[in-house]
Design a protein that fits this description.
137 residues, mainly beta, Immunoglobulin-like, five-stranded mixed sheet, four-stranded mixed sheet, globular
């Protein structure tokens, strides 16, 4: 079942509450959607960030890129930061789905976040080219 993060059902979901206990930190995600080697930002790319927890898929974020092709400041639960810098940091992994119907773009990305770190996910969309009526001259 797909459940939005703001759904009241999650208050009594044991798997979700355990996930929050195990991930009391916060990681941050930025998304940048563009074309032409990042020269042209793309507005209106739908971004859905979710994670399978227990029997449910929890949608933590669902929104669209702005005129600059950006979404800033998506906050997601992560494990607490490790005090010893020599250890590999603990992280949480999420699914990011980017959808842009104008160019039939629908891609999934796996992103991993650590506490107090901002990750930037770049989405490069190659525009559809209409070759109808093009005789090559």
């Amino acid at each position: 079942m797909i459940i939005d993060i703001n759904d009241e059902k999650l208050e009594s979901d044991i798997s979700f509450q355990k996930y929050l206990e195990d991930n009391p930190g916060t990681g941050y995600l930025k998304v940048r959607a563009s074309s032409a080697s990042e020269a042209m930002p793309i507005e209106g790319v739908e971004v859905i960030v979710s994670k399978k927890i227990g029997d449910n898929t929890i949608v933590f974020y669902d929104g669209k890129t702005d005129a600059s092709g950006m979404i800033n400041g998506i906050k997601l639960p992560t494990p607490k930061r490790i005090a010893n810098n020599l250890e590999v940091p603990n992280f949480s992994t999420y699914n990011l789905r980017a959808v842009y119907p104008d160019d039939s773009y629908d891609q999934n990305y796996e992103i991993s976040l650590c506490c107090s770190i901002t990750i930037v996910q770049y989405i490069n969309i190659t525009p559809k080219v209409n070759m109808e009526g093009n005789n090559g001259s």
